[in-house]
């Protein structure tokens, strides 16, 4: 294929309709047709990256191998498409403006007047093309975050329009739009989608395909109506009803022949047809009937009167991957750690779960409740898995209640603690003193060496691993010897032995009491569940 192809994915009517899943699913399908495909996420906010944003506002911060803190949709791309994406596959308005302003300050524009148009769209196009070239991709998927009609995304749409104008026949636009079914009316409404198309038309763009998201499948009448009012063929309107598992989406899209439609519009033909592994995965998910109750103890759940599970989306997906590999249906419950601080008697509810996870986080709120939950899991031999902060709190709990270090803590919470078993990494002190918070943590993939004969080594079945990190604090080296004397095993360490990567109790003491300083959830996929999540689920299934 001589000329590269581009597919832009945009959203209409409202946010959260599934643009990320749609993009990842289209990528998955096109890969199955024999094409080299990559994906990019564009977020239209002025933040330079996602690293400093509150998870309850933006959702999970997904960390790439090279350390870039990105949007959770990047995780969807990696999981569905089996990719390891680089930082150039992520773009924000903040990045674009910062680059342009820095270039202007260094006379990169030769002293001429720098304008919003065309200079901003040109920089956007340059970044898109650079990401495609880096991946050597034949087809590039570009998801533009936000919703049509928002002023933040106008320049990205303009960039897409300009790229399409320069590359006629090589650029498509896919609109993901929501079709509500108002309960009091009981009829699926197409008018919001029609207005979304008009909004896209106003930007000089005609959608090539519409993904019709709704609670129910799209009927023929609605398909005809959307096609007629939006200047499309009926087959260009793809039904995307709510389904139990997002991993069914590629299979559902193919029922409406989406790959044939997209490839035809791009002037391409399928090189092969191979969705066997993915169809087998979907079949396995549907066969997973017996529930396995897993509790997640955290604090990033509430947003007003609603629960935002997106704050831990990769953790949830990693649990699902592991459960499906044992033909178990994950029954995940959110457990607010602050409730255990107010009412410790509620800790007894943890016995109802096959396993408990304390995921990553920052700050003081809800911490004592998490520590109480960890202690309960340790004493009652409930399988426990701590991720990042969850490992640090596990070490604190052990120091307090096994070593008798009353008030042991992390200096993140109490700088004056007598027993600073968790302390800030020396190289991080200046960053905090200078209030330099963005992209300054220990970020990205780092290697670790595993200790033979441990749960971690048994799970990975190898001695050297590489995992993604996002932290400033670590186990204080001054306390490692005394912790190890009391049977806390540091089964994973950095190659120089300076940083503790995995902590666990021996299997003879506890079936699974393990924490990681890294985020294993970022490297799990439905076809290859993460070994630690799989080991955790295996032990949880066998819990008496």
Give a quick summary of the entry.
The chain is of the alpha/beta class and 544 residues long. A hairpin with a 5-residue loop joins strand 3 (61-63) and strand 4 (69-71).
Characterization of this structure:
Helix 5 crosses helix 6 and helix 14 crosses helix 15. This protein has 19 helices and 23 strands. Helix 8 links the parallel strand 8 and strand 9. It is α/β, with parallel strands linked by helices. The mean pLDDT is 92. Strands 13-10-14-15-23-22-21-18-19 form a 9-stranded mixed sheet, with helices on both faces. The termini are far apart. The chain has 2 domains: 276 residues, P-loop containing nucleotide triphosphate hydrolases (Rossmann fold, 3-Layer(aba) Sandwich), CATH 3.40.50.300; 253 residues, Class I glutamine amidotransferase (GATase) domain (Rossmann fold, 3-Layer(aba) Sandwich).
Radius of gyration, in angstroms, nearest whole number: 25 Å
Name of the CATH homologous superfamily of the largest domain: P-loop containing nucleotide triphosphate hydrolases
Task: Kindly report the spatial arrangement of strands forming the biggest sheet.
Answer: 13-10-14-15-23-22-21-18-19
Which CATH class of the largest domain applies here? Alpha Beta
């Amino acid at each position: 294929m001589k000329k590269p192809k581009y597919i832009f994915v945009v959203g209409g009517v409202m946010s959260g309709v599934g643009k990320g899943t749609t993009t990842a699913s289209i990528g998955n399908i096109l890969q199955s047709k024999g094409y080299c495909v990559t994906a990019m996420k564009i977020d239209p906010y002025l933040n330079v990256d996602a690293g400093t944003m509150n998870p309850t506002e933006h959702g999970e911060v997904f960390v790439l191998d090279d350390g870039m803190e990105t949007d959770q949709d990047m995780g969807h791309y990696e999981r569905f498409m089996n990719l390891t994406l680089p930082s150039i596959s992520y773009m924000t308005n903040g990045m674009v403006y910062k680059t342009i302003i820095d270039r202007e300050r260094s006379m990169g524009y030769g002293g001429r007047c720098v304008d919003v148009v065309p200079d901003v769209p040109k920089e956007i196009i340059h970044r898109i093309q650079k990401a495609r070239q880096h991946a050597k991709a034949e087809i590039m998927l570009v998801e533009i975050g936000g919703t049509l009609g928002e002023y933040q995304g106008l320049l990205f749409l303009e960039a897409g329009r300009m790229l399409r104008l320069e590359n006629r026949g090589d650029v498509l636009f896919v609109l993901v739009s929501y079709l509500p079914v108002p309960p009091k009316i009981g009829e699926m409404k197409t008018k919001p989608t029609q207005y979304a198309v008009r909004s896209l038309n106003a930007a000089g763009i005609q959608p090539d395909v519409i993904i019709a998201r709704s609670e129910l499948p799209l009927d023929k009448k609605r398909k005809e109506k959307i096609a007629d009012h939006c200047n499309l063929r009926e087959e260009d309107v793809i039904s995307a009803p709510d389904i139990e598992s997002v991993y069914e989406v590629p299979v559902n899209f193919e029922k409406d022949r989406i790959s044939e439609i997209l490839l035809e519009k791009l002037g391409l033909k399928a090189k092969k047809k191979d969705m066997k592994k993915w169809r087998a995965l979907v079949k396995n998910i549907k066969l997973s009937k017996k529930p396995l109750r897993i509790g997640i103890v955290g604090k990033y759940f509430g947003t007003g009167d609603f629960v935002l599970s997106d704050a831990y989306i990769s953790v949830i997906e990693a649990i699902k991957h592991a459960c499906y590999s044992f033909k178990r249906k994950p029954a995940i419950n959110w457990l607010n750690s602050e409730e255990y601080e107010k009412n410790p008697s509620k800790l007894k509810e943890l016995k109802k779960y096959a396993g408990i996870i304390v995921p990553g986080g920052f700050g003081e709120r809800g911490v004592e409740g998490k520590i109480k939950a960890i202690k309960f899991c340790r004493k009652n031999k409930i399988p426990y898995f701590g991720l990042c902060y969850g490992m640090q709190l596990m070490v604190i709990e052990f120091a307090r209640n096994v070593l008798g270090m009353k008030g042991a803590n992390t200096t993140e919470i109490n700088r004056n603690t007598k027993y600073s078993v968790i302390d800030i990494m020396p190289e991080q002190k200046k960053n905090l003193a200078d209030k330099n918070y963005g992209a300054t943590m220990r970020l990205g993939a780092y290697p670790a060496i595993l200790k033979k004969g441990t749960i971690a080594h048994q799970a990975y079945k190898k001695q050297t691993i590489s995992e993604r990190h996002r932290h400033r604090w670590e186990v204080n080296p001054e306390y490692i010897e005394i912790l190890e004397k009391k049977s806390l095993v540091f089964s994973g360490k950095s190659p120089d032995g300076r940083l503790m990567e995995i902590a666990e109790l021996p299997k003879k003491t506890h079936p699974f009491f393990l924490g990681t300083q890294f985020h294993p959830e970022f490297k799990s996929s439905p076809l290859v569940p993460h070994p630690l999540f799989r080991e955790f689920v295996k032990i949880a299934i066998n819990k008496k």
